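Private note to self, pasted from the team thread so I don't lose it. Backbone tokens:
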């Protein structure tokens, strides 16, 4: 990873606790699915998936969840808002489309996101659209409540102009939500009961990634055909490390 400067173009609160950060980095190249690190003045390096696709460079988009005003994420947002340029390190991560998965000619690509894991999966989705990928692609995004949904404009455009499917699944019922609801894995398996010929990219919290994968594995998704940054830094919480 290389350290470089990125110009701050905008920091916008786009729902109750998610900020969309727009940056410009002239020296950056990356693969869809990779992440960058925001380098704080303290020396702390905080990773965030790049939510834009490579063809959008030099523009970059991050989605930062701030659930607690005392959190590290809050410190990151304050730092970005207070500066016209910031230090970043990039790119990082092996969960991307150039990892050989497309060479296997998968029958179906599942792109699965929980919460702000949306950023990484959006980048992968946008890149497949840009490449005019002709295979079957299904994007599933799971959120806890209707109030947690963001990026509505992008969702509407993605529905209109791409051949791939995109479903938003909200876990908790409310009068504000008339779309699909329940557990993310339930929606995926309702649509695709046999995953033996599928590959998957999963992005979200450790619990969400492993919980979803465990359910999909029962229906044929193999470990070798499932990719997540979580696998690189967190062992399976329910399985002993060998």
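Design output:
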């Amino acid at each position: 990873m290389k350290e470089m400067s990125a110009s701050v173009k905008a920091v916008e609160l786009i729902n109750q606790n998610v900020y969309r950060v727009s940056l410009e980095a002239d020296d950056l190249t990356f693969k869809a699915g990779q992440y960058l690190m925001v380098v704080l003045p303290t020396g702390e390096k905080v990773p965030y998936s790049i939510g834009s696709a490579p063809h959008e460079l030099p523009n970059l988009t991050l989605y930062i969840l701030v659930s607690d005003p005392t959190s590290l994420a809050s410190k990151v947002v304050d730092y970005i808002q207070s500066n016209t340029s910031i230090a970043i390190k990039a790119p990082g991560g092996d969960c991307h489309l150039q990892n050989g998965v497309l060479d296997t000619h998968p029958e179906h690509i599942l792109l699965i996101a929980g919460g702000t894991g949306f950023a990484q999966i959006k980048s992968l989705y946008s890149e497949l659209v840009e490449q005019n990928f002709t295979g079957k692609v299904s994007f599933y995004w799971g959120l806890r409540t209707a109030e947690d949904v963001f990026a509505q404009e992008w969702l509407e455009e993605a529905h209109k102009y791409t051949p791939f499917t995109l479903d938003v699944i909200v876990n908790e019922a409310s009068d504000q939500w008339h779309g699909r609801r329940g557990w993310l894995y339930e929606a995926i398996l309702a649509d695709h009961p046999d995953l033996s010929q599928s590959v998957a990219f999963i992005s979200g919290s450790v619990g969400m990634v492993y919980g979803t994968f465990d359910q999909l594995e029962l229906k044929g998704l193999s470990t070798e055909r499932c990719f997540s940054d979580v696998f690189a830094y967190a062992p399976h919480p329910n399985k002993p490390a060998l």
